[in-house]
């Protein structure tokens, strides 16, 4: 037997359906109603991340320059570590900002973040190359050898040859001794004078030219010292032996200096810092400035939003 619903039952079902429909509309309305406070909070968070990124880039750049200009390996490494840490922090902030923009952003914000991401990748690549060079300090080490042990060896050679000339003043070959000793002293000093320009030089071609001049003067030193050794009265002379051993020590140190100078890490890192790094730094900051402006121009909508 089929029971037909009465009028009251139909009325209650209709009322229930209407209430359910109203409830659904309220839920949908609440879900889609703009929330000005939430929008402002999100905008503030995005602006804060951009500001932190700009500051982080400046900190990384400052630490990088300190690493390049440091006068010892320990300080260079300390500043290089600081630069890498600051850059890593910027990368974390970039990813956090990308997450926020993925849920709420304007086309301009997305474009400017993509632009920054591209130039920031270049920034990181340049930094990796630059800092790896800066911490080696090969030019500083070359200067230290040139003005330290190498200069000492030349001074010892020069003093020994001067004593040799003085005590051979009464020799029949006194004039020849003086000429040969002076020739060796002059040629050795010319080699010494060519070391600092070689250390400071950036061009391999000019380094080759400087080394060719050193080689010519080196031949002169050896020729003059051999000429002194051939004089019978100077055979076994302690001052001549000192001059020869001192120059040999200088030659060994000079070879080490040239190897360090050829690596040229201080010169190269400074050149990169002043050129490529500076340019990519400006591009990063410009992209972030544009992104910051775009975020500031966001329209806050909703019943409680104030006109912008």
What does this entry look like structurally?
The structure is a single chain. The protein is mainly alpha-helical. Among the domains are: 31 residues; 129 residues, de novo design (two linked rop proteins) (Up-down Bundle), CATH 1.20.1440. The chain is 84% helix and 0% strand. It is built from nine helices and no strands. Helix 6 runs antiparallel to helix 7. The radius of gyration is 39 Å and the shape is rod-shaped. The relative contact order is 0.13. About 2% of the residues have low confidence.
Helix percent reads over 70%
Number of strands: 0
The DSSP helix count reads: 9
CATH topology of the domain at 138-266, which one?
Answer: de novo design (two linked rop proteins)
Annotation keywords:
308 residues, mainly alpha, de novo design (two linked rop proteins)
Question: How would you summarize what this structure contains?
Answer:
The protein has about 300 residues and is mainly alpha-helical. It is built from nine helices and no strands. Among the domains are: about 1-30; about 140-265, de novo design (two linked rop proteins), CATH 1.20.1440.
Summarize the topology:
Blueprint: H1 7-32, H2 36-69, H3 73-103, H4 107-134, H5 138-167, H6 174-200, H7 204-229, H8 238-263, H9 265-296
Helix pairs in contact: 2-3, 2-4, 2-9, 3-4, 4-9, 5-6, 5-8, 6-7, 6-8, 7-8
